[in-house]
Automatic annotation (TrEMBL):
UniProt-listed GO biological process terms: cell adhesion involved in single-species biofilm formation; negative regulation of bacterial-type flagellum-dependent cell motility
Species assigned in the record: Billgrantia tianxiuensis
Pfam families: GGDEF, PAS_3
Domain of life: Bacteria
Any one of the GO CC terms: plasma membrane
Known catalytic reactions: 2 GTP = 3',3'-c-di-GMP + 2 diphosphate
Domain annotation PAS: ranges: 11-72
Name of the protein in question: diguanylate cyclase
Domain PAC, first and last residues per copy: 86-138
EC number: 2.7.7.65
Amino acid sequence: MSDDAAPLSVDTAVYKTLLESTQAIPWRIDWETMCFSYIGPQIERLLGWSQGSWIGIDDWVERMHPEDRERVVGFCVAQSKAGVDHEADYRALKADGSYVWIRDVVHVVRKDDGEVEALIGFMFDISERKKNEEKLLRLQRELEELSYQDGLTGVANRRLLDSILESEWASARRSGQPLSFIMLDIDCFKQYNDHYGHLAGDDCLRRVAHSLGSSIVRPRDLLARFGGEEFALVLPETDLEAACQVAERCRAALSDEAIPHRASDVSHLVTVSMGVATAYPAEGGIPASLIEQADRRLYRAKQSGRDRIVAE
């Protein structure tokens, strides 16, 4: 061995020691043979597979979660062929049959003529990071759900109502189908609060929401709290006659709930007044016009004595 080669051997040994003392797992694949020319011994600690069992790229592919395989392999091969450094996250199979999240950071080594010579990189265990990310995403989903939910009654809030109404209006405009809207108001609710107290009033709102919710049988129908003691229902692909049947079903459900209301001018039980309106968005108009029409009919129902449905 020449004098010049000796320092290089020492440096190589030092680099190897440094690489194998880290948590990251170094590796190298020869592009022509698609075989591992090196993989760090840390791989056995992390995944349980022996260092010598990593022969070729097939070992890497087969030890990847089936749901991640096509996406990751396709991406990495395409990037490598293009000579682009890249990274990929995937679930790696452990020798005991479980999975661990890995991040592979890959550098493409080129020859002097520009052809790919090898891939070198590091595998990192990112399981803890993934757990935290999933927890954060779950919390974000929960917060999003809460942002569309009325805090008192648990039904949809006005924000979601407006969003769904816009969406169903656009759908009905394309399909030519009718869209119906029911606006309802608890009769003499101020008197209820004055007589029973605001905590009882809150419980009354919850019970009304529950009974109305039990009247909805189709997945796309939406019950929402419009505000105060007012609720609304969005009924896609529903004509006026069918919407009135839903309104009658709501009245019957509330009657079965039999919530006492001794201070009511209408009944000894809690009742509601309803305005029902139907539109054909394909003929023009805007969602707000449907709400306004239902609101006007609700007003007439209350002016006419309450505890009734007005649909024209």
